[in-house]
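Slack export, channel: ligand-projects

TW: morning all. Re-posting the request from yesterday since it got buried. We need the structure predicted with the small molecule present, not the apo form. The ligand is flavin-adenine dinucleotide; the SMILES is in the block with the sequence. No rush, but it would help planning for next week.
GE: picking it up
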Amino acid sequence: MPGEAGASQRLTDFVDTALATYGQDRDVPAIEGTSRLSPHLHFGEISPKACWRAAVSSVHRSGIAEAQAEKFLAELGWREFNTQIASRHENLATVNFSRTFDRFPWLDNTAGFQAWTRGETGYPIVDAGMRQLWQTGWMHNRVRMVVASFLTKHLMIDWRKGEQWFWDTLVDADPASNPGNWQWVAGSGADAAPYFRIFSPMAQGTKFDPAGRYVSRWIPELRHLPAKWIHTPWLAPPDILSDAGVRLGLNYPHPIIDHDMARKRALAAYAGLKAE
Ligand SMILES: Cc1cc2nc3c(=O)[nH]c(=O)nc-3n(C[C@H](O)[C@H](O)[C@H](O)COP(=O)(O)OP(=O)(O)OC[C@H]3O[C@@H](n4cnc5c(N)ncnc54)[C@H](O)[C@@H]3O)c2cc1C
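GE: finished. pasting the full token output, ligand included:
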């Protein structure tokens, strides 16, 4: 519920329920393992200090393990970190924090960008995230990292295009956290993820959505596929696809790019950047 009362209620609900297991559940997109406070924080309906205090006091009051609360506090810390960076780099959404990336050979790939925005890349965890974003204005953090990595590394599309799309579609779109995280994933940001960290959508899906519940929810075309194949429908035997009503290329796309080829291409581009 929007507004201060809704924000306060959400914080109370989160602290009373999901905080106790936040450390492990925060990476599972199929469950409500995170606070969903980002829109409230963004619109100033609640302060980070109030969130911090509520988490700390729940450790004392309800005996929630300190490590769980600390993980949540660390996330609030990332928000502050990005805010601090943005306050000193007013062009964070348009200029590489690391200017080495000014030479990165981004590709002009209109069809790839369109498939990404529509959730039609053929990689289920990517498509589920992009459809969740389009339908709700929010996307789980784990999946934000996966889709951002896919755009910048598999498709080698400039992070600024992804940042802009998120800016237009996220309900929590934030002038500091959005570009800060995009640059972090792309490798051009402050304290960025190492350039060679290229998420495999298959491995990420299998690890964080093992039963395929998240994918089934956002891609109903795949919901009858057994969990074993839900993150790699293109590898499923024809009879399994047929039983599940999946017709690749008709009601769900083939992968728009080969994972191994894309990975090698991105690594070569990043290596070239380092060598120059
Ligand atoms: C490519 C990309 C773009 C993003 N764009 C935004 C954005 O525009 N606005 C935004 O608020 N967050 C952004 N994030 C960070 C993060 O995904 C969201 O803050 C989080 O998913 C919000 O859900 P929550 O409130 O349930 O988070 P929780 O896990 O409950 O975390 C609590 C709070 O900590 C803050 N937080 C958590 N993770 C981060 C992070 N990585 N960076 C900064 N703050 C964080 C948020 O304010 C969040 O509400 C982005 C992440 C990525 C990878």
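GE: first-pass observations. The chain has 15 helices and no strands. Residues 26, 34-38, 41-42, 75-76, 78-79, 82, 141, 144-145, 148, 166, 170, 172-174, 177-178, 181-182, 185 surround flavin-adenine dinucleotide (CB under 6 Å).
TW: perfect, thank you
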